[in-house]
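Me: I keep going back and forth on a fold encoding question. No explanation is needed for now; the record alone will do.

Assistant:
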Amino acid sequence: MAIAPPIHQYKSPPEALKFSFIKCNTPTCKLRTSLTTGQRRRLQQRLDILQPEWDRRSQKIKHMRANLAIEAGTAVKFQLEQHLLDEEAKLANLSNELDQIESALES
C-alpha cells in the first residue's frame, strides 16, 4: 500500500494574519487587549478558515490510523507511522492556534 502525497499543501498564514496573544489578568492590561472591530472580524475570518482545516486533518488522521492497523509490511507501516506523527503534530499546532483565537474572541 503506497502513501499518496497530500492533495493540498497548507502554507502558514502571511505575517499580517499571524497574531500574538498576551495573557494578562490586570484591569489595565485587559483594557489594552480589547479587540477593535477589524481585529475581531479578522480573527473570526481566520477561525472560519482554520476550523474546516482542523476537521479535514482530524478525519485524515482517523483514516491513517485505520490504514496503519491493517498494514502488514514493516517498511510501509514505518512510513505510515512517521506520516501519522507529522499529521498529529500539525493538528496539535492547529488546535493551539484555534484555542488562542477563540480565547481572544471571548475577551
In short: The mean pLDDT is 81. The CA atoms of residues 26 and 38 lie 24 Å apart. The two ends are 48 Å apart (CA to CA).
